[in-house]
Amino acid sequence: MPRPTSAADPGVPMRVVLVTMDAHLSSAAARAQQQLDRLLPGVRLVVHAAADWDSQPDALARCRADIASADLVIATMLFMEEHFLPVIDALQARREACDAMVCAMCAAPVMKLTRMGRFSMDGKSGGPMAMLRKLRGKGDASKDADGEKSKAGAGAQQMKMLRRLPKILRFIPGTAQDLRIYLLVLQYWLAGSQENLAGMVHLLVDRYAAGPRAALRGRSTPAAPVDYPELGLYHPLLASRITTDAADLPARGGPATVGLLLMRSYLLAGNTAHYDGVIAALEARGLRVLPAFATGLDARPAVEAFFLRDGRATVDAVVSLTGFSLVGGPAYNDAHAAETLLARLDVPYLSVLPVEFQTLEQWGGSDRGLLPLEATMMVALPELDGATSPMVYGGRSDGGGKACTGCARGCTFTAGASAHDMHGCPDRAEMLAGRVDRLVQLRRSQRAERRVGLVLFNFPPNAGNTGTAAHLSVFESLYQTLATLQREGYRVELPASVDALRDRLLVGNAARLGACANVHVRIPVGEHVRRERWLREIEAHWGPAPGRQLSDGQTLHVLGERFGNVFVGIQPAFGHEGDPMKLLFERGFAPTHAFSAFYRWLREDFGAHAVLHFGTHGALEFMPGKQAGLSGACWPDRLIGDLPNLYLYAANNPSEGLLAKRRSAATLISYLTPPLSQAGLYKGLVELKDALNRWRGLAPGWTLEHAALATLIQAQAQVLELVGPMSPPGAPRTHCPPSSGCRANCWSWSRR
Asked: Are residues 69 and 46 in contact, defined by beta-carbon separation less than 8 angstroms?
């Protein structure tokens, strides 16, 4: 029982500083402070998030100042250099002066600073660590399908051991008790609810408060770590919010099911508004959701428990809302293990992200979009797993009350229990739900019913380049693709030959309508003006509709031809062919009327179930907007919308392929480049070329040198059978005749 305290009792001042990777526990920490105020008056818990330091230099200064005056320091999840290097000297300086310093799940230089009573990780006292290694043993990690040890099994084994060891260590006196406290801290942290945060601080104060703060020890018994399910499901409408039984989830949505992967730490902290926004958007589309979570950094146990049954997927798509690797989270990446699991699922897998290291307002107003750290950790690493369609769906607000400029909605975000609470981005959540819905519809539709758009390119235009791509024989490959679709059950009206296909696309009515290819559809100007959502932005750069590109003044032309349920279209030109990067790197630009109308017609009029961009590469992914983490104001996102986008891309160009993946939500299908290389010269041709170059470099008037080199060149050419046999010595020589085309002042030997 806690000792009774007066309501006005100020308690003994003690400052506890928690430094961690991000701020997802800030609101839970604020609620934990209320519990500490009742149990330990005077104890103050201050939380600092390393994710804030890049964009808020004053936040780093405050953190260092708080560390310098802290009585108890807790450092967790500082494993990236950008996060621990700015404060490691402050931690080192405070290590011996504070009552205790607890470092968990951090980089080695930080872990070595742990000092709790007689327990230290600096390598000088090996007893407790040796004891831990002996008690931990080797475990019995299960093996995956390839016979390798499963990190999922190893993780479960480690959690079991983490709960078991403190019970064993209770009976071992001395330093083992400090080790026991450290393991309990891990239990509190890994189940980081407000109750467990309060319990963790209470336990450390009760054990290590020193000097005048020792009066805080023994005031009450710290609560044991609260256990929560290691695997489970979440829904905001559940009374308990967490369950282990899918039958407890609200009966919402239709037959199609989407599996969501969530971070358990956010759920336990009660910081879930960003998740709730996505769940609501998916359910508004008529989709049933299974929001699942697992302990630690490996999502495989959640997938196996809730998305698979008897080796078959029970979901139509999986969306990771964690923003991290499927196996490894923010700490590491096991792409092979992720690939193995995703192959078993065989459903679309999307990895999307909340902005963690900047605010939503900063992201919305940024030309860059994602910070380098976010693009690396939350886009590039999930891509190694095979994830597609990286996009933002939420994040934190700066609490300033200003409208976000990421799209035309101008959302403002009301602060919750903490200024660091997460928020959903309604525009991005709806776009994500639309893309997932379209993928699910595509997967559940009959092949004969599917309408597919294939997009060819024409760059630079008006130069005979229609239907070209890097390292690809476009029309032959296109013909084979159409034939394969026909064999696989798609409704395709296949032309008789490659030449017939080419003629229908490039000839057709082109001459009659003054176009560079067949005009499949003419969109009246009035219709375009009525339906174009971003007309004002386009007209600001290209003038009144319909503009000059692909237009006869009254209509806009959609180039291409339809072959059954397949439309093969020709992407309109950039508009700035002399400077194609202008659209990407200059602000305020927009695609042409014809470009926007082309993609609108594909989405809304033709009603494509999916589009395949055919070859390397087109212009869509180079349209104006953020580099990564696009918003609703970015043109690639506006043009492709929620239409599933496949992209046939050369395997030797991954850098520009990444632009297509990240800026136009494309799933890449690689094709190999031809096994050809520059032949160059060989044998005596190399020597002949050198002699010719030397001859050309001689100054005018060097007659003797010209003559000597001419003799050498003639001899080399005769060996290579480029000229007839030479006349014997002494035979008359003449200048090369004018008819030879030789413009040099050289001599030729008379032939026999």
From this structure: no
Residue 202's CB: how many other CB atoms inside 10 A?
Answer: 24
Helix (H, G, I), strand (E, B) or coil at 259: strand
Q: Are 27 and 269 in contact (CB under 8 A)?
A: yes
Q: Domain extents for the chain?
A: 14-216, 231-441, 445-671, 684-749
Phi, psi of 551 (to 5 degrees): -145, 145
Percent of the chain clearing pLDDT 90 (strictly above):
63
pLDDT score at 697: 83
Tokens of 697: 């470099």
Chain CA centroid to CA 255, Å: 29
| Dihedral Cα 533, 537, 543, 546, nearest 10 deg | -20
Indicate the SS3 state at residue 477. helix
Give the DSSP H/E element, type plus range, for residue 149: none
Nearest CA to 478 among 595, 601, 571, 567? Answer: 567
pLDDT tens for each residue of 422-439:
999 999 999 999 999 999
d(CA 298, CA 295): 7
pLDDT tens digits, one per residue of 107-137:
999 999 999 998 888 876 555 566 555 544 5
Spatial separation of the C-alpha atoms in residues 671 and 613, rounded to whole Å = 13
Task: Give the whole-angstrom CA distance, residue 466 versus residue 589.
Answer: 25
Q: Can you read off the two tokens belonging to residue 704?
A: 């003797």
Side-chain-facing half-sphere of 163: CA atoms under 13 Å: 13
One-letter amino acid of 544: P
Q: What is the mean pLDDT of residues 22-41?
A: 91
Query: How far out from the chain centre does Cα 97 lie?
Result: 43
DSSP 325-367: BTBTBTT---HHHHHHHHHHH-S-EEE-EEEEEEEHHHHHT-S
Dihedrals phi, psi of 358, to nearest 5 degrees: -155, 175
3-state SS class at 164: helix
Supply φ then ψ for residue 749, to 5 degrees: -80, 140
The dihedral region occupied by 159, where left means phi > 0, alpha psi between -120 and 50, and beta the remainder, is alpha
- Distance (Å, rounded) from C-alpha 190 to C-alpha 264? 9
Of the pLDDT bands very low, low, confident and very high (cuts 50, 70, 90), residue 738 is low
Query: So what's the architecture of 231-441 in CATH?
Result: 3-Layer(aba) Sandwich (3.40)
Count of beta carbons in the 10 Å neighbourhood of residue 121: 19
Strands 72-76 and 14-20: parallel
Report the amino acid identity of residue 453: G
Q: How much of the chain is in helix, strand and coil states, percent to nearest 5?
A: 40, 20, 40
pTM of the entire structure?
A: 0.83
